[in-house]
């Protein structure tokens, strides 16, 4: 059976993953065997999220007819005891059902429910949609206040990951709100010893610890990686205040599961996309250090970009730090694929694939053929003029500059990474596995 929970925290405290850890312990105390602990990240643009839009699903063995009801009661009493009910935005939900992810058991997730999970991950769901499905499938469920947490709780029990990673989370007491004591150098050591099998615990380039939050919640630190063994190994290097408890979740973090392949003309606000196109203007650094450029659907065969296709603004915000230099190095006509969420009329860049580079053309006033001095501009759209002999010319000197970037993938640093975004270190391994898989399927290996 699966027990889904969501929406128990507020900006002032708690965390649904912590409640998931408490739930596992309570279920085990009652004799339940836990088989999986799942942390499902949902649409990062969902308007009512507190922090990272996480929902939790605990999978336990069901032995008797009473087990579901007992597990439901345990989950509900924990939610009632620990949720931050005073916060208007905290609207918990609990769902219990007898689904498994095992197709042989004939009760794996029905398509309709899997589609609900995908919608919660990539799009937006309503409370009514969740309630209708819960009624239709006869699941045990309870929603508190406006019951919005039922969306995440149902999505969590309906989730099936075709790609997944793991995170070990260490917690402090639920009521601790102050500074966390975690030895910074031991986190750097943990990453050194286990990278690339774990990632994003630290940001070497910016010399920042990423895996210790600063928010007033029970998470002490969290380490992300490829397997439970790797995250446990990394964790073994970390010296900190004594954690209250720890848990390892299987998760869709770091998988790019939120990205939809799309054309620029089809994008909708609040969804996240992979979009192909051409850079169609020189990148601009705006107020606050944010860097933007325009991505256009087709180049019309021109190497200097094209204004005729559908376009969208792409943004590398200031927190993406050195990634902005990559974006600044793009030039009109570069063929790229961008990944990121579409919000407020721009794509918030998570990573970018530079497929091919155009020539970086610099136009300079020509040298005067008579007196060999460099001409100067004669005014806007008026060509060039020699200040010595007054000779005029309309033709600039064209210099093809060397490019500062090469084709390939570029990403924001760990400090700016979104939970669902796949780090390139993982992507490299992942792409090789996908190629091998397809070769095995087509009998070429
Ligand atoms: P927590 O750690 O408690 O999970 P959070 O940052 O994950 O915090 P929540 O407090 O769970 O955020 O709030 C997110 C709310 O939005 C939940 O009620 C959840 O059911 C709902 N929700 C999640 N994804 C979607 C979606 N795609 N469409 C509509 N509602 C959603």
TrEMBL record:
Residue ranges occupied by any TiaS FLD domain in the UniProt entry: 148-258
Keywords attached to this entry: ATP-binding, Cytoplasm, Ligase, Nucleotide-binding, tRNA processing
Catalytic activity: cytidine(34) in tRNA(Ile2) + agmatine + ATP + H2O = 2-agmatinylcytidine(34) in tRNA(Ile2) + AMP + 2 phosphate + 2 H(+)
GO biological process, one term: tRNA wobble cytosine modification
InterPro entries the UniProt entry points to: TiaS-like_TCKD, TiaS_FLD, tRNA_Ile2__agm2C_synt, Zn_ribbon_TiaS
Keyword Ribonucleoprotein recorded: no
Location of the protein in the cell: Cytoplasm
A GO molecular function held by the record: ATP binding
Domain TiaS-like TCKD positions: 3-139
Presence of keyword Lyase: no
GO CC, alphabetical: cytoplasm
Residue ranges of domain TiaS C-terminal zinc ribbon in the record: 365-405
Top-level taxon in the UniProt lineage: Archaea
EC number: 6.3.4.22
PANTHER family reported for this sequence: TRNA(ILE2) 2-AGMATINYLCYTIDINE SYNTHETASE TIAS
Family classification: Belongs to the TiaS family.
Free-text function comment from the UniProt entry: ATP-dependent agmatine transferase that catalyzes the formation of 2-agmatinylcytidine (agm2C) at the wobble position (C34) of tRNA(Ile2), converting the codon specificity from AUG to AUA.
Protein's recorded name: tRNA(Ile2) 2-agmatinylcytidine synthetase TiaS
């Amino acid at each position: 059976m699966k027990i889904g929970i969501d929406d128990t925290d507020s900006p002032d405290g708690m965390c649904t993953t912590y409640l998931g850890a408490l739930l596992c312990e309570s279920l085990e105390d009652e004799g339940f065997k836990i088989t999986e602990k799942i942390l499902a990240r949902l649409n990062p643009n969902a308007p009512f999220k507190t922090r990272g839009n996480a929902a939790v699903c605990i999978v336990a063995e069901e032995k008797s007819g009473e087990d579901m009801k007992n597990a439901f009661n345990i989950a509900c009493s924990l939610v009632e005891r620990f949720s931050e009910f005073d916060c208007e935005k905290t609207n918990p939900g609990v769902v219990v059902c007898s689904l498994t992810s095992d197709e042989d058991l004939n009760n794996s997730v029905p398509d309709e429910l899997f589609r609900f999970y995908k919608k919660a991950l990539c799009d937006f769901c309503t409370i009514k949609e969740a309630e209708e499905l819960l009624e239709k499938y006869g699941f045990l469920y309870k929603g508190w206040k406006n019951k919005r947490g039922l969306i995440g709780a149902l999505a969590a029990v309906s989730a099936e990951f075709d790609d997944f990673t793991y995170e070990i989370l260490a917690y402090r007491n639920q009521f601790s709100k102050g500074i966390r004591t975690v030895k910074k150098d031991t986190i750097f050591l943990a990453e050194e010893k286990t990278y690339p099998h774990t990632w994003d615990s630290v940001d070497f380039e910016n010399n920042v610890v990423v895996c210790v939050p600063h928010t007033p919640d029970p998470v002490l630190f969290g380490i992300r990686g490829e397997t439970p063994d790797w995250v446990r190994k990394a964790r073994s290097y970390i010296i900190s205040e004594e954690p209250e408890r720890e848990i390892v979740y299987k998760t869709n973090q770091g998988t790019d599961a939120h990205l939809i392949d799309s054309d620029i003309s089809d994008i909708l606000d609040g969804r996240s996309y992979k979009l192909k196109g051409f850079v169609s203007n020189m990148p601009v650094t705006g107020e606050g250090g944010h860097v933007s450029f325009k991505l256009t659907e087709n180049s019309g065969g021109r190497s200097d970009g094209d204004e005729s296709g559908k376009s969208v603004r792409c943004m590398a915000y200031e927190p993406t730090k050195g990634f902005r230099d990559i974006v600044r190095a793009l030039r009109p006509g570069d063929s790229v694929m961008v990944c990121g969420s579409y919000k407020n009329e721009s794509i918030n860049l998570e990573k970018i694939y530079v497929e091919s580079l155009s020539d970086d053309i610099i136009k300079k006033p020509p040298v005067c053929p008579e007196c060999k001095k460099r001409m100067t501009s004669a005014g806007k759209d008026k060509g060039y003029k020699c200040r010595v002999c007054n000779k005029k010319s309309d033709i600039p000197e064209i210099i093809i500059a060397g490019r500062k970037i090469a084709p390939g993938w570029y990403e924001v640093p760990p400090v700016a990474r979104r939970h669902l975004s796949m780090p390139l270190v993982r992507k490299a391994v992942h792409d090789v596995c996908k190629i091998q898989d397809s070769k095995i399927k087509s009998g070429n290996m």
